[in-house]
Specification:
alpha+beta; five-stranded antiparallel β-sheet; three-stranded antiparallel β-sheet; 22% helix
Length: 144
Amino acid sequence: MRCLFFKSTSDQLLLCVFSGLLWVVTNCNKMELSMTNTAESKTIKENNPLLISSPSPPLNVEKVDVVTQNESSITLQWNKVDGISTYRLEIGEGGHINVNDISGEPVVFVVSGLTAGRRYSFTLFTVLNGLYSSGYSFTAVTGR
């Protein structure tokens, strides 16, 4: 039987790091990484607690309709996405409005304080658990 003697603490540390890497490589090779169906994906997650899946962002609204418009406001309407009641409406280059705790379907929202005869660019984001959809962009013009 061969005995190992270490010259320094750094040699011991190096051996520990090497042993840890060897364990990871050996155990990772035992995992099946096929993700072809849900059952296999679930098995991988259950067998490897270090594999963390990140949540997906919510879907965009399908469309936004301009219901009415006058010199200073535009009324918008859209259907909720999966019952989600929190949205963020970006207006132009920097302003935004958080649209929260909406009850009812479809959502009807009035954007007020606008300038007459101006074209506005909007992007509507669905918000769920701090995640934003990619955004639905559209334009609308106030009346003169």
